[in-house]
């Protein structure tokens, strides 16, 4: 990728620790929606937990229920699997809702800060930037 300006695979970006500093600098815009962000992470972990339990219940059905011919175990574990699937679905829907709200709040705060920064520029600085390609004039 030499000559493209892009970093090669496996090579760190220039500056080494600059990425973490830049991440911290934009993470402050997540503060207004921190609750939604943390709830989204929590619900994602809960959803993953339910999804990981389902194969364990399936092995119990096969190893115990089918091997011994115990229909009661098969129905009980099948019910637990259905409950886990429904709970995973609900936590996944809630996770998506809170993640979208956090992303919307983060984007709004970032746009607001960008607008305030641009408003601090002096007019001669504005004219130094070329117009966007889609502008009419």
What features would you describe in this structure?
- With 137 residues, this protein is an all-alpha fold.
- 73% of the residues lie in helices and 0% in strands.
- It has four helices and no strands.
- The protein has helices at 18-27, 34-68, 71-119, 123-128.
- α2 runs antiparallel to α3.
- The chain is rod-shaped, with a radius of gyration of 26 Å.
- The relative contact order is 0.11.
List the helices and strands and how they pair.
Elements: H1 18-27, H2 34-68, H3 71-119, H4 123-128
Helix pairs in contact: 2-3
Q: Structural class of the secondary structure composition?
A: mainly alpha
Give the topology string: H per helix, E per strand: HHHH
Main pleated sheet: none
Secondary structure tally: strands? 0
Cα(first) to Cα(last) distance is 36 Å
Percent range for helical residues?
A: over 70%
Beta-strand content bin? under 5%
Unreliably modeled segments = none
Q: What is Rg?
A: 26 Å
Which outline best applies? rod-shaped
């Amino acid at each position: 990728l030499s000559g493209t300006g892009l970093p090669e695979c496996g090579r760190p970006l220039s500056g080494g620790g600059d990425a973490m500093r830049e991440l911290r600098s934009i993470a402050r815009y997540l503060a207004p929606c921190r609750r939604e962000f943390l709830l989204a992470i929590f619900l994602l972990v809960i959803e993953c937990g339910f999804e990981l339990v389902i194969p364990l219940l399936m092995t119990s059905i096969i190893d115990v229920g089918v091997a011994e011919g115990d229909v009661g175990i098969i129905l009980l574990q099948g019910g637990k699997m259905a409950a886990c699937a429904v709970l995973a679905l609900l936590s996944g829907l809630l996770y998506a809702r809170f993640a979208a709200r956090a992303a919307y709040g983060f984007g709004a705060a970032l746009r607001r800060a960008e607008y305030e920064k641009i408003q601090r520029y002096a007019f001669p600085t504005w004219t130094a930037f070329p117009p966007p390609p889609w502008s009419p004039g």
